[in-house]
């Protein structure tokens, strides 16, 4: 009920569930650089495969990935 009342109070029209909050929490942790194993533990997932779903959602940080081969002076 707290979530439902909060959604109404702030005027969101999108359907928000407890799962939506859980999903957003995990995605934001991942985007902030939190190790996937910590997220797995926080969410209570027994399998890392379940947590890996979040890696397919975010593309934040892709521009910061460097190719290790570019560092070779050959």
Summarize the biggest pleated sheet: none
Overall strand count? 0
Spans of at least 5 consecutive residues whose pLDDT stays below 50 are: none
Q: Tell me, rounded to a whole number, the average pLDDT.
A: 84
Q: What is the gyration radius calculated from CA atoms?
A: 17 Å
SSE string: HHHH
Query: How large is the count of helical segments?
Result: 4
Could you say which structural class the secondary elements and strand pairing correspond to? mainly alpha
Shape: elongated
Portion in helices: 40-55%
Note the beta-strand portion: under 5%
User: How many angstroms separate the termini?
Assistant: 62 Å
Strands, helices and their partners?
Layout: H1 2-10, H2 18-31, H3 36-43, H4 48-51
Concise overview:
With 74 residues, this protein is mainly alpha-helical.
Structure description:
By secondary structure, the chain is an all-alpha fold. It contains four helices and no strands. It is elongated. The model has no long low-confidence stretch (mean pLDDT 84).
List descriptors.
mainly alpha; 74 residues
